[in-house]
Amino acid sequence: MTSYRPRRLRATPAMRRLVREVRPHASELVLPVFIHEDLTEPRPIASLPGVSQHPLSAVAGLVEEAIAAGLGGLMIFAIPSVRDAVGSGAIDPEGILNRAIAAAAGAAGDRLVVMADLCLDEFTDHGHCGVLSSDGRVDNDATLEVYAAMGLAQARAGAHVLGLSGMMDHQVAVVREALEAEGFTDAAILAYAAKYASAFYGPFREAVDSQLQGDRRTYQIDPANGRQGLHEAELDELEGADMVMVKPALPYLDVVAEVAAQSRVPVAAYHVSGEYAQIEAAAANGWLDRRASHLEALTSMRRAGADIVVTYAALELAAWLKEN
After folding, report:
1. Distance between CA atoms of 111 and 6, rounded to whole angstroms?
2. Shortest CA distance to 249 belongs to which of 217, 201, 318, 283?
3. Helix, strand, or coil (residue 247)
4. Integer distance in angstroms from the first to the last C-alpha of the chain?
5. What number of CA atoms fall less than 13 Å from residue 5's CA on the CB side?
6. Cβ contacts of residue 227 below 8 Å, gap of 6+?
7. What CA–CA distance (Å, rounded) separates 111 from 31?
8. pLDDT tens for each residue of 169-220
9. Catalytic residue (choose from 247, 271, 294, 302)
10. Is the pLDDT of residue 1 over 70?
11. Are 91 and 101 in contact (CB under 8 A)?
């Protein structure tokens, strides 16, 4: 009778390394960075331990740090001095986001992928991801016009990847058409395809000084719905997305796995601010091993099928992976 003893493959560190199925690498990691128009020095974000808002002058240094760590990319978010109802700062070539993109792209060259957040929430005085209609609802099609202009502004600034995070219907098709019409055929689109109306975004809203009142449940996906996430990812791929994202990551690993199974383009997972902050808070209290917990979270996202992981722990993860 055959003796099945799976522990044979776990007997020693060398054996475990040999049979390991998932091997995360620094080049798969993307670090989000926050650039604040009013700062001259970094300002720590209280709810995101170890993460700061940075002045524009810090961008080149952040790029070099990411390159030295072996990261795959940076995702740039920006906080403007002035906001208005339509987020006009997002399309201003001299606006803080486009200036930060230009600084990052100039410093990076072809050594690092510069990604830019394409959404209006940081630029509107109401904090929503789109333009509001007269009755206070987010107007999908009016917002698409602004997204197209925003996409062109980011491409002109030198962004390699546009991260469409607003969850408007047809945003990928409209931005892709605008890029093609202006000759930006090499600008890639990362669609935040399955972005859920999650409770785990809280620290991010502090990071971008969010003005949001209410919620985004009319355009972000209900956390109860997995199939909607698959449908959104499929539609974005058909509209021309070069990559698709599931956000958040750990509470939606089932969606990550199913999107990865159906997708013909790379799949990203965003280990969002609340997920990161949970580990940091528990580790600070001595309840978790910080390094082991971040590495396990990363491994689980990769195991589920994510090709790219956006995480605030990217720099430290890269160092830990090299040590391992």
Report:
1. 43
2. 201
3. strand
4. 39
5. 7
6. none
7. 15
8. 999 999 999 999 999 999 999 999 999 999 999 898 889 888 887 789 999 9
9. 247
10. no
11. no
Give me the residues paired with residue 245 across strands: 268
The predicted pLDDT at position 215 comes to 86
- Given the DSSP bridges, would you call strands 73-79 and 113-118 parallel, antiparallel or unpaired? parallel
Alpha helices in the chain (DSSP H): 13-19, 59-69, 96-108, 140-157, 171-181, 202-207, 226-238, 253-262, 273-284, 290-304, 314-323
Q: Which long-range contacts (CB under 8 A, 24 or more apart) does 280-284 make?
A: 280/48, 280/49, 280/50, 281/49, 284/49
SS3 138: strand
The owner of tokens 């040590």 is: 323
- Written as six digits, the tokens of 270 are 């965003």
| Residue recorded with tokens 């698959």 | 230
Mean pLDDT of 245-265: 98
248 upstream amide cis, omega within 30 of 0: yes
Of the candidates 195, 216, 271, 294, the residue annotated as catalytic is: 195
Residues with Cβ within 8 Å of 317's Cβ and at least 6 positions away in sequence, in order, are 24, 26, 29, 294, 295, 298, 311
Note whether 118 and 175 are within 8 A (CB).
yes
Instruction: Give phi and psi for 32, each to the nearest 5.
Output: -75, 140
Cβ count within 10 A of residue 122 = 24
What distance in Å separates the CA atoms of residue 124 and residue 126, rounded to the nearest whole number? 5
Task: State percent of the chain over pLDDT 70.
Answer: 100
322 annotated active-site = no
Is pLDDT above 70 for 311? yes
For residue 169 the two structure tokens come to 């219907």
From the centroid of its chain, how far is CA 245?
8
Work out the burial of residue 96: count CB atoms within 10 Å of its CB; fewer than 13 is exposed, 13-18 middle, 19 or more buried.
buried
| Residues 6+ positions from 6 with CB-CB distance below 8 Å | none
